[in-house]
Design a protein that fits this description.
- The complex is a heterodimer of chains A (about 80) and B (about 180).
- By secondary structure, chain A is α+β, with helices and mostly antiparallel strands.
- Chain A is about 15% helix and about 35% strand.
- In chain A, a hairpin with a 2-residue loop joins strand 2 and strand 3.
- In chain B, the strands form three sheets. In chain B, strands 6, 7, 8, 9 and 10 form a five-stranded antiparallel beta sheet that branches. A three-stranded antiparallel beta sheet of chain B has the order 1-2-5, with no helix packed on it.
- The radius of gyration of chain B is 26 Å and the shape is elongated.
- Chain B is an alpha+beta fold.
- In chain B, about 20% of the residues lie in helices and about 40% in strands.
- Classes of the chains: A alpha+beta (about 80), B alpha+beta (about 180).
- Chains A and B meet through loops of A and strand 6, strand 7, strand 8 and strand 10 of B.
């Protein structure tokens, strides 16, 4: 079994709506789509209040997508 | 899919896009539903105060020094009787974007920026925080820099409160004035 970073297989993008982060992720290539498909994750109360209230560097959740793409994935044979 | 706008509820999954010649596309046949009986109101309100302070620590043990500095700062403020609604400590160069998913920092990390942010409904503790950062430079862990900008400023938090209002409550007016330049 081989391990790759999700980044090698997928594209992702994230951003804020209030205190919620939206992370969209999709396989880069058609042949990977059956395995990975595409998802839209909603992370509620993930931004320390969000907007101007938040104390986070990334108060807009722009980098959440890259945290997801950094994960390791075990590929099926 | 319902994408609500003031004029119509659109379903963008029904959109057709056709090639209409060189550098032209035709977007057509988008299905939709009638607009809702609500309008969105963007309300802002005063939600307290915040301040953000940063200091840069260099190798060796950059992260450990920054962590110690943060502990000393917060404890000093607590000893002075100041409490906060939120205190956030980040280490730029290690975990400020990926949080705990960043994993442990490299032992040989050349530098890190300590970023501490505080929030309170009261102005006094936030002001005290901005004053207590400077003493840390002389009495805290060494090889610290990046403080030339002076003490951080206290920021008013103007928070956002989106809400819905009945459309009938709103009387739209449009007034155009043309004046000679």
């Amino acid at each position: 079994m081989s391990r790759v970073r999700l980044f090698d297989l997928a594209h992702a993008r994230s951003g804020d709506k209030g205190d919620t982060v939206n992370v969209g992720v999709i396989a880069r290539k058609l042949e990977d789509y059956d395995f990975l498909q595409s998802y839209n994750f909603l992370l509620h109360e993930a931004l320390d209040g969000g907007g101007t209230v938040s104390l986070m560097t990334d108060a807009q959740g722009k980098t959440f997508s890259t945290a997801l793409l950094r994960m390791w994935v075990d590929l099926p044979e | 899919m319902d994408y609500i706008t003031p004029d119509v509820v659109a379903d963008f999954t029904t959109m057709h896009i056709d090639d209409a010649g060189s550098n032209r596309v035709k977007v057509h046949s988008v299905k939709g539903k009638p607009r809702t009986d609500k309008l969105k109101v963007s309300i802002s309100y005063h939600a307290g105060y915040k301040a953000v302070g940063t200091l840069v620590y260099s190798w060796p043990n950059a992260v450990q020094k920054a962590e110690m500095a943060a502990r000393v700062l917060i404890e000093r403020l607590r000893n002075m009787g100041h409490t906060f609604d939120a205190v956030r400590t980040e280490f730029v160069g290690w975990n400020s974007t990926h949080g705990h998913l960043a994993g442990p920092p490299s032992e040989d990390i050349p530098e890190v920026e300590l970023r501490i942010a505080v929030r309170s409904t009261q102005k006094a503790p936030v002001e005290a925080f901005t004053r207590e950062l400077a003493p840390l430079i002389l009495t805290g862990p060494p090889s610290v820099t990046g403080f030339a900008g002076g003490r951080p400023r206290v920021q008013d938090i103007v928070a956002y409160w989106p809400a819905l209002i009945d459309r009938q409550q709103i009387e739209p007016h449009l007034r155009v004035e043309v004046t000679d330049a």
